[in-house]
Amino acid sequence: MVVSNASLTTPEQQALSEFYEIDEEFRRNVSNFSVDSTSDTDCQAHPSHYLTGLAAQRDIRFRLAQGLKNKIGTSSWNDHYVETKFTGFGLDVHAAGGGVQVSWEHNTLDAYATVKFDNPSINSLVFNIKFVGDVSATGHREMFFAMELHKGASLVDGFPIGNFMSGNNNDLTNVGVSDCLIENLAQTATEDLAWDSGKVGTGPVTTWTPGGFYSPSCTRQVKYRTCSTTQDGVQTCTESSIHVGC
Hints:
Low-confidence stretches: 1-6, 79-89, 104-108
Shape: elongated
Number of strands: 15
Structural class: alpha/beta
Helix content: 10-25%
Largest sheet: 8 strands, mixed
Order of helices and strands: EHEHEEEEEEEEEHEEEE
Number of domains: 2
């Protein structure tokens, strides 16, 4: 981390002391924190639901932020993640006559929190968590959580979720995956085809339809679009595809 002043006045020392108190409180409560996913439908209670769009991502992040707020146990922590209010990736701490501004430019002590789904050893979403906001040494706090999905540690049916956000084709024709993974990815499909020959790009091809009659060798190709948001609010979208049996 970087503190802007090398020589601190008494008010600045008070403000920095408040920061260290907040940082310790944050890390003590966030490290290894987890919440369980809840949903009205089966496939919304699957980590691949996160890939269906911004609404799903917002709901999952909000649930995690709400759990973190309850864990920390103080109303000074806002239950919205950082995209709702972003004025600089750091923390302003004020005291009468001075203050400090702390940024995370060189912070290497990341904190992680997890949303767990059924069979969490293969189905879980892991987020890197930081906090931003504005506080005073007199007790005022306006704190927000900044979250970013860890694409390598987050698992969907045992696969890193980044595999399905990579821009590559994932050949799952001989791999056991859940129907929910396929169903959720198909929600953002730009193309959903059935190759009757079993080999994509060869032989007759039709638009895949639920309940349709297909040969045992048929291969389904789903091209889909996923988006993700970094901790500083930058969104990137990628088109990928999967191959599965019809």
